[in-house]
Each structure stands twice: as C-alpha cells, then as structure tokens.
C-alpha cells in the first residue's frame, strides 16, 4: 500500500488581501506551500507528493519538495481533480491537503493515513467547535441552534482509498457539481461513511491577515 499526497495551492486567497496567490505568501521567511511540503515530506507514511500550483508558479523554487507539479483549476474541486489525474499507479491511499493549512504537523498526515490503512475509506481530522453556531435564514433570523457537542470543525489532510475518492469525484462531475466544500462531502454524497480522527490546533487554515500572525507565532514557538 503506497500513500500519495495532493497539496492544492492554486487558490487566489483574496481574503488575505495580498498581491500573490495565498500559497506563495511568506510566513517565517518562507511561502506557505514550502512549509506544507516540509511537513508532507517529514510524514513517515507519504511516499509521493503532488502539488497543484497556480498559473505561472509551476517552476517556483518553493515547490522543490514536490515529486509532481500540475496546474490548478477554476475551483478547489477542479484543482483536486487535476492532482488525482497524475497520481502514480501504485498509490492506493490518497491524502488531500490545503496548502493554506501549512502548519499541519507530519503526525497529522500519519494519523489520517494510518486510519485509511486500518480500513476506513474516507477520513477527516476534526476539532471541537468553540463558538455556538446558528442557522440563519435569508431575512437574518435564527432558525436553529445545532447542538455544539455534535459538531466538528474539519481540517485537512483528508485521507481516502484511491478508488473511493476517484469514484466520488467522477460522480460529482456527472451530477454537475463543480465546487464541493471539501473532498469528504463528495464521499458523503455517495452514501459512504466518513470517519473522524482527532485534528490538530496547528492545522488551522490561513485565510485572513490575523492568521499570518498566528502562523508566525506557531513557527517561533517551534523554533524556541
Ligand atoms: O480559498 P481556500 O483557502 O478555501 O482554499 C483552500 C485550498 O484550496 C487552498 O490551499 C487553495 O490554494 C486551494 N485552491 C486551489 N484551487 C482553487 C481554489 C482553491 O488549489 N481554484
């Protein structure tokens, strides 16, 4: 059984408000994608890394840790599909990771891969939700307050049996879905179970400017 990891890095990251694509914004003196590739390469389980890169960045030195680089698509789902298309033939487990979760530790990759290898065909890392969440209608009125103890904030890397994630993406194309919220959602649409393992605080997604401050603090703590 061989584990491959697709790191999607082709988003523009407009909420970060920077000129360059988010994965190439620097923290601790290195682009986010560089940090993500460091972690993937330190995972004991990952044997092959595919990066899905934004236009014009395919040859960037920050991607030197990747085995294969492919161009991105219009949506995250398209970018993942581009990565799935170039997996090596012997990869039967696939981790799919957001470059924006650049500080997810190697142990998280290992935990997710191990859970797939243990027999779960779809695995997501999840953490408890700290805010109370409300369902709100178009008029701005609260219609429900879900029980927080049943909710998880889901991270990446998400892990899959290759046959299952390929089938899930193919079914999405047939349905005309183009912008799935995450890869596990496509497996859920097949009616298949998705198993949750413990996520990690460092696997937060860099989205807004304050997330860059948190990321540099985490890096400084690691270096101390
Ligand atoms: O925008 P957001 O942070 O939710 O994107 C999640 C991940 O998907 C990021 O790492 C981003 O680079 C990637 N992405 C992509 N191709 C797109 C859109 C997003 O690879 N078209």
Automatic annotation (TrEMBL):
GO MF terms held by the record: 2-C-methyl-D-erythritol 4-phosphate cytidylyltransferase activity
Record-annotated site: Transition state stabilizer: 15, 22
Reactions catalysed, as given in the entry: 2-C-methyl-D-erythritol 4-phosphate + CTP + H(+) = 4-CDP-2-C-methyl-D-erythritol + diphosphate
Pathway stated in the Swiss-Prot or TrEMBL entry: Isoprenoid biosynthesis; isopentenyl diphosphate biosynthesis via DXP pathway; isopentenyl diphosphate from 1-deoxy-D-xylulose 5-phosphate: step 2/6
Enzyme Commission code(s) on record: 2.7.7.60
Sites annotated Positions MEP for the nucleophilic attack: 148, 205
Domain of life: Bacteria
Functional description taken from the UniProt entry: Catalyzes the formation of 4-diphosphocytidyl-2-C-methyl-D-erythritol from CTP and 2-C-methyl-D-erythritol 4-phosphate (MEP).
Family: Belongs to the IspD/TarI cytidylyltransferase family. IspD subfamily.
Protein name per UniProt: 2-C-methyl-D-erythritol 4-phosphate cytidylyltransferase
Provenance organism: Jiangella mangrovi
Gene transcribed to yield this protein: ispD
């Amino acid at each position: 059984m061989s584990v491959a990891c697709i790191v999607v890095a082709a988003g523009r990251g407009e909420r970060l408000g920077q000129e360059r694509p988010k994965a190439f914004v620097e923290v601790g003196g290195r682009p986010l994608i560089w940090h993500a590739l460091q972690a993937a390469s330190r995972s004991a389980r990952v044997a092959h890394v595919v990066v899905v890169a934004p236009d014009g960045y395919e040859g960037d030195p920050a991607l030197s840790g990747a085995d294969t680089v492919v161009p991105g698509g219009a949506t995250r789902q398209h970018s993942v599909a581009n990565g799935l298309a170039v997996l090596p033939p012997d990869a039967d487990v696939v981790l799919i990771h957001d470059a924006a979760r650049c500080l997810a530790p190697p142990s998280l990759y290992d935990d997710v891969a191990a859970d797939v290898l243990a027999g779960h065909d779809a695995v997501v890392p999840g953490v408890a939700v700290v805010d109370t969440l409300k369902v709100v209608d178009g008029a701005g009125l609260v219609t429900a307050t879900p029980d927080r103890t049943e909710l998880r904030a889901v991270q990446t890397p998400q892990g899959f049996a290759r046959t299952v994630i390929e089938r899930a993406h193919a079914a999405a194309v047939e349905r005309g879905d183009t912008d799935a919220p995450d890869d596990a959602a496509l497996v859920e649409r097949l009616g298949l179970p998705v198993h949750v393992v413990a996520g990690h605080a460092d696997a937060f997604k860099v989205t807004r400017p304050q997330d860059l401050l948190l990321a540099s603090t985490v890096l400084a703590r690691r270096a101390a």
